[in-house]
Amino acid sequence: MAGSVHCESEVEESESLRSDANVAGPMADQVPGPRSEPADVSRETSPPMDDTPIGRAAQLAVEALGRAGRGLPRPQQTRVMVVANQKGGVGKTTTTVNLAASLALHGARVLVIDLDPQGNASTALGIDHHAEVPSIYDVLVDSKPLSEVVQPVPDVEGLFCAPATIDLAGAEIELVSLVARESRLRRAIDAYEQPLDYVLVDCPPSLGLLTVNALVAGAEVLIPIQCEYYALEGLGQLLRNVDLVRGHLNPRLHVSTILLTMYDGRTRLASQVAEEVRSHFGKEVLRTSIPRSVRISEAPSYGQTVLTYDPGSSGALSYLEAAREIAVRGSAEGAGSAVSGERMDGGAR
């Protein structure tokens, strides 16, 4: 009897609750989960795709790849550029691989020669470089043809790499006793028969025989300079070595390009270093500077350049613009030298 009274009271209580709820408004859905909004409300609240972070990144990536596909003026002859700075951590390897990828995406045929025994450029381009792989060491020490060690880069058409292995660490000592030790890389590049627009040589952070080989082989020196306090320290010694090589071994050699890297516009120090470099070196400094970027740092761990890892990032866009500057400058210099040559020929007649 008591149980029946208790049940009747619960039923009356639940009915009263339902009636109160109906007065106040409709009850919540019985099925758990988010409620669906009316169609007109959703159209007002959800932003268009281009206003979302993913949409903006996708749009930047499409624009970057479209910009790369437009093409740039091709050099009249192969430009051999040596990326050198004996100070470590300034972005030599990062600059080498990303400029090479940028130029290749613009339609050029580019070869990266990894002269650093650490092999970081090979890693960033996704090229295997364990001890048994034919490498640039075999070219320098054993006179193997360059064509037998060059490998195509898997992600970028028109980009090739001559990898470095750990054997290259001993090449400095082994080269000492060899004939024409300073010009072995130049001879290998001259004997390479495949057509190339650019050869970019990634040098080790030193001024030994490997770097001297690169300076003898190239006509242009590209110096990355980090926008920090110690950026210019030791740069004078590199410039003196360039002068020595030009005077005794390679009269074509000159510093053609200086690129500011790791630029942080939030700091006064970066602006001061950039201003000092521009005032000292003038027109050799590219207008484009490479910002500090997490994407640039992440890309090598995936065996990629930032151009393929995140083409819409600020780092990728900056390297694309730097590559455009380099190509346009080279085209203008080539046209200027051709005009001066024609004038000299006309005068001789």
TrEMBL record:
Residues 79-254 form the AAA domain. CDD domains: ParAB_family. It comes from the Bacteria. Residues 1-54 are annotated as: Disordered. This is ParA family protein. It comes from Streptomyces polyrhachis.
